[in-house]
Amino acid sequence: MGTKVLTHNVQRLEGQIDIPGDKSISHRSVMFGAIANGKTTVTNFLKGEDCLSTISCFQKLGVKIEETGDSLVIEGKGWDHLTEPSSVLNVGNSGTTIRLMLGLLSGRPMHTTFIGDDSIGKRPMKRVITPLREMGAILDGRNNGDYTPLSLRGGGLRPISYQLPIASAQVKSSIILAALQAKGTTTIVEPAQTRDHTERMIRQFGGHIETDNLTITISGPQTLKGTQVNVPGDISSAAFFLVAGAIVEEGKILLRNVGLNPTRTGIIDVLNKMGAKMTIHPNKDEEFEPVGDITIEPSHLTGTVIEGDLIPRLIDEVPIIALLATQANGKTIIKDAEELKVKETNRIDTVVNELLKLGADITATDDGMIINGPTKLHGSVVSSHGDHRIGMMLAVASLICTGELTLEEADAIAVSYPNFFSDLSQLIN
Ligand SMILES: O=C(O)C1=C[C@@H](OP(=O)(O)O)[C@@H](O)[C@H](O)C1
Ligand SMILES: C=C(OP(=O)(O)O)C(=O)O
């Protein structure tokens, strides 16, 4: 399944990359476009496999979605025009698709069934099933609703007050999408701030939502209006080049059009704390999501502690931060990150096991990992284990390996970054 022998011993990375569209915002643009009234045009939509799964699920619900030139056009006809699908909704590898769609369809008076790939089959769904059942949706699935296949009969929702037991933007967004359809006011309290793209997009589509520190208040029912969405570049994709640029010996990289939403910029805080040579140039004129350009250069790095409220702001960047830490002086401790165990793989175990094969000094803990650096990495045969972020982390690691690195299951990278290897090779030549 897509074995790749990667370039090793790269001394210099030089050039610029336009960072592809944000995965979280791309998913949401289709979802909001589908439930809004009127046309939504999306530019810089991420054509990664996860977002294509979201498109195909909404097409099965009767929504017309087409590519026109560089844009994606969604013909929204409002909540009532989503139609009962005649076959199962397959979310592929995408946790965001299934968890947000469960909330979105909880208020629809129809039956839907969800399946996904082997990885989705291991990811916990109880976290969304519990609040959605409390709101009145009828949900069931394997192991009393914790795993796919899942079935849903929606309709007639009531508002709830809900204290989120975990910091999860997917759970928060699922409840918000249900609350938009429930008559009355829903209140959600987060244990820590998570990405707020759903909240921002509700306002962009003409809806109302109030946020006060960790409390979110939303009244329903609401109808939304189609609009124009320009998706910023994904900071979670940029992260691989930020680390690559910092750990090679020479050169300078410019990353253009990177989303700089403060709920996502934990990686920038970490790079700054570790002493990276990085400059941020914010664009001034973005209305809904902040964007900017970033330059990164080879850096003398120091180990650090990454914990607490910082974790949700960099949750998808932990694999690449672990690699960064192998090149820093001293100890890096990552804690409070047990959520990593329920991602596409158990990202604590996968990161530690694969980096050990390259010679890293890294140990798994119950809620994170401990890395001592700097260590010289050597090539080996490693695998993404079907996890796109592990695949890209290992591809960046290959740049500084002394011998050849063979990456198995490299094709998983297309889940979030189909052009990753061509963008990377532009910097090498
Ligand atoms: O809301 C989203 O778009 C996402 C939220 C995060 O998941 P959790 O909500 O499970 O933390 C993140 O890991 C995922 O890649 C995308
Ligand atoms: C965890 C991720 O995505 P999802 O939960 O949507 O599968 C990710 O992209 O790293």
UniProtKB/TrEMBL annotation:
Domain (Enolpyruvate transferase) ranges: 10-424
Cellular compartment(s): Cytoplasm
Catalytic activity: 3-phosphoshikimate + phosphoenolpyruvate = 5-O-(1-carboxyvinyl)-3-phosphoshikimate + phosphate
Residues binding 3-phosphoshikimate: K23, S24, R28, S168, Q170, D316, K343
CDD domains: EPSP_synthase
Pathway the protein contributes to: Metabolic intermediate biosynthesis; chorismate biosynthesis; chorismate from D-erythrose 4-phosphate and phosphoenolpyruvate: step 6/7
The entry's keywords: Amino-acid biosynthesis, Aromatic amino acid biosynthesis, Cytoplasm, Transferase
Source superkingdom: Bacteria
Entry EC no(s): 2.5.1.19
InterPro entries named among the record's database cross-references: Enolpyruvate_Tfrase_dom (IPR001986), Enolpyruvate_Tfrase_sf (IPR036968), EPSP_synthase (IPR006264), EPSP_synthase_CS (IPR023193), RNA3'P_cycl/enolpyr_Trfase_a/b (IPR013792)
Subunit record text: Monomer.
Primary role: Catalyzes the transfer of the enolpyruvyl moiety of phosphoenolpyruvate (PEP) to the 5-hydroxyl of shikimate-3-phosphate (S3P) to produce enolpyruvyl shikimate-3-phosphate and inorganic phosphate.
Protein's UniProt name: 3-phosphoshikimate 1-carboxyvinyltransferase
Organism encoding this protein: Pseudoneobacillus rhizosphaerae
Primary gene name: aroA1
